[in-house]
């Protein structure tokens, strides 16, 4: 596959360096603030103070989680009623809240596919919503998922649970339960599960990248207790919108509420207090191989996480993995912009996604 759009080496390196410089400036300011804090805390290092500090961290997590979750819930509701689903496609078969795990009534998936009888079985695109691992619903991503479905695909949009209740590795294992469900019901759904595409935005892109690594790296797959029905599932394409590929860099980026999001994903434990091997496991960039599926990667100029996408593309280039990079620029190029069809820039990204899937799936 040829690299398209803004994928030539010079512009890519120029944008990459610009993002790095912005990150350096952020860290310089952060170091100054931390140095000041250390000066203020040189005294009073008794064990009681250490225990109190640990307790305060737990209390702080609870307060911050509640606040962040409230914000996520508000954004999802407002977004679903307005901009998130603006431009949603119509004239589709839509079935919502299909339970894919009989043991957990909270877990479900929605399906979208064209009206009329297809010539053969539908190709499958699995979508994984974002929301900081703490929120998000398939219903609030229908501008994106229904537009994909109109291209002739069967789209399954998965609700996989929220952190910290469904902390790692439960989310990715739930996604594989959904894949197992689709494989078991492939005939009645008239879908071709021999090879699928996966995609998602933000936290969903992180989980989609993990799924792609599981499908192409046996060492990584062996780390998870995957649904037997889904083991060996082939993934032939990935669509990753403003994703997270190296967890430590979320906190370092200065992304709003990045620390509380990652802490929730880790079950309430601050990321920097988890073992290094654990942090590698939840960072798919360390598990990408030359077998990683061809990727359509979206980044945004005004997204503090944009550098993570550039890092991933750099890795794909190094390994010779085919990719298309859509880097949004301008005032509306914000985090995960491509999920809404209200923006011209999002519709351009969608056109590229459709072309990419037509070639790869």
What is the third-level CATH name, the topology? Rossmann fold
CATH superfamily: Alpha/Beta hydrolase fold, catalytic domain
Question: What's the architecture in CATH terms?
Answer: 3-Layer(aba) Sandwich
Number of helices: 12
Give the topology string: H per helix, E per strand: HHEEEHEHHEHHEHHHEHEH
Strand content: 15-25%
Gap between N and C termini, in Å? Answer: 13 Å
The low-confidence runs, each spanning 5 or more residues with pLDDT under 50, are 1-6
Cα Rg: 21 Å
CATH class: Alpha Beta
Q: How many strand segments?
A: 8
Total domains: 1
Order of strands, widest sheet: 1-2-4-3-5-6-7-8
Which word captures the global form?
A: globular
Q: Largest sheet at a glance? A: 8 strands, mixed
Roughly what is the average pLDDT, rounded to an integer? 87
Features:
361 residues; 8 strands; alpha/beta; 12 helices
Describe the secondary-structure layout.
Blueprint: H1 9-40, H2 47-81, E1 92-98, E2 108-114, E3 122-128, H3 142-149, E4 153-159, H4 170-184, H5 186-189, E5 191-201, H6 203-216, H7 218-221, E6 235-241, H8 248-253, H9 258-265, H10 276-281, E7 295-300, H11 306-319, E8 323-328, H12 344-360
Parallel strand pairs: 3-4, 3-5, 5-6, 6-7, 7-8
Antiparallel strand pairs: 1-2, 2-4
Helix pairs in contact: 1-11, 2-9
């Amino acid at each position: 596959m040829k690299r398209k759009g803004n994928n030539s080496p010079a512009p890519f390196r120029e944008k990459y360096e610009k993002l790095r410089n912005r990150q350096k400036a952020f860290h310089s300011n952060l170091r100054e603030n931390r140095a000041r804090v250390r000066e203020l805390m040189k005294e009073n290092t008794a064990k009681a103070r250490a225990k109190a500090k640990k307790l305060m961290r737990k209390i702080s997590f609870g307060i911050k989680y509640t606040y962040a979750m409230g914000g996520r819930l508000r954004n999802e509701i407002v977004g679903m009623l307005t901009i998130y689903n603006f431009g949603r496609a119509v004239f589709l078969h839509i079935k919502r809240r299909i339970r894919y795990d009989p043991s957990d009534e909270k877990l479900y998936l929605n399906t979208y596919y064209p009206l009329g009888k297809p010539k053969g079985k539908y190709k499958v695109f699995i979508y994984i919503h974002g929301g900081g691992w703490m929120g998000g619903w398939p219903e609030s991503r229908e501008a994106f998922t229904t537009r994909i479905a109109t291209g002739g695909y069967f789209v399954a949009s998965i609700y996989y649970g929220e952190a910290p209740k469904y902390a790692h590795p439960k989310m990715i294992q739930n996604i594989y339960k959904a894949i197992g469900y689709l494989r078991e019901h492939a005939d009645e759904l008239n879908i071709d599960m021999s090879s699928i595409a996966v995609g998602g935005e933000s936290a969903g892109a992180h989980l989609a990248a993990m799924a792609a690594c599981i499908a192409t790296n046996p060492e990584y797959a062996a780390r998870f207790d995957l649904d037997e029905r889904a083991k060996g599932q082939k993934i032939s394409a990935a669509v990753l919108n403003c994703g997270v590929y190296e967890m430590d860099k979320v906190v370092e980026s200065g992304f709003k509420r990045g620390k509380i999001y990652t802490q929730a994903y880790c079950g309430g434990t601050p990321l920097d207090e988890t073992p290094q091997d654990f942090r590698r496991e939840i960072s798919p960039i360390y598990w990408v191989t030359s077998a990683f599926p061809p990727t359509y990667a979206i980044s945004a100029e005004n997204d503090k996480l944009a550098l993570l996408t550039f890092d991933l593309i750099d890795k794909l280039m190094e390994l010779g993995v085919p990719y298309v990079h859509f880097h949004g620029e301008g005032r509306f190029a914000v985090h995960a912009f491509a999920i809404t069809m209200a923006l011209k820039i999002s519709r351009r990204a969608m056109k590229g996604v459709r072309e990419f899937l037509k070639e790869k799936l």
